Amino acid sequence: MPHSKSICADRSFRASPPDVLREAIAHSERAVDLDDTFSLAWYAIYFSSVALDRLLQAEGGDPSALNRADEALGRVQALTHGLPELVFADILFNPELDFFELRQRFEDFTRSATENDYPDSAIAFAQGTYLFITGRVAESVGLLERAHALDPLNGLIVQILAEIYAARGRPEDSREVAAAYSEQVGFVEAMVINTRAAQTALEMNDDSVLDEVLTRRRPLANSGDYFALFNRMGELIDEPERAIEELEAFFRSNEYPFWATHAIPWAAYFGDEELVLEMLAEANLFARATHLWRPLLADTRKTDGFKELMRTIGLEPFWRETGNWPDYCEPVGLNDFQCF
User: Fold this and answer.
1) Is the CATH number of domain 84-190 1.10.8?
2) Would the pTM count as exceeding 0.90?
3) Average pLDDT, the chain
4) Residue 332: how many CA atoms within 13 Å on its side-chain side?
């Protein structure tokens, strides 16, 4: 089985986010035309096609992309049923995955990757991501730093490392690692990472940094709801009540939770903890995990509503049964816990 490698788009390519994904799919299609047994290329088609459909949900999605995704996933499973990358598809696209199954998936990933001589970066990334998702942020730092050092142009590694730095109260490091990647591959190509830059800027409490982030997004306001949202919240930075009204309207009117997760940091910044919790409840496992431990949510974590959410989504039972409590929560007696 071939090693997992980063695939970067032409750095001169500057297009809308959907076109970036279409270009990525086209590159992978050319790869499978040359070798129809290239599992990683089929996986790339699957992953990018699902992402394209999700990015276009506000416009009704892309049924043809979903059909292609199904075909590509079938090829992956037929060619290499144990392909480690499939674990990430489960994390990103499977809203029903519970935390005990998640642990098993990552154990399966590590075993399969080791057996197939995957690079150390892939294994370190998997282990660190699992720790981060389950709240053991401090333990995940070294693993993701190692993965990044070995594979600096891997966008998923950069994204998780930036999230981990932020959750550890290191917003400058979070911003630096994301900015370095963006400079190398281009702002639009680094779209997923750049959607979180406003959150980091808010945590840095530096108006000049926030202004810079918002300025860079302004030309892309029509590329996705989250860019327009960031611009609007920047305009309302000194009008919290009106900002909250518009955030709630954005959340209520949006049928697809993917977009709503990008409003979480703003709701936290403006102090609407109930709205934050409601948005977290609607988020998928991966999107939720990348918000739970951020400094912006420190006050939310202290609420009874947060504790109830942790029970509802299955994290608290997982922590209690495994004994692996997260950095920002601890047991209180036999049946209670607190977060901070």
Assistant:
1) no
2) no
3) 81
4) 7
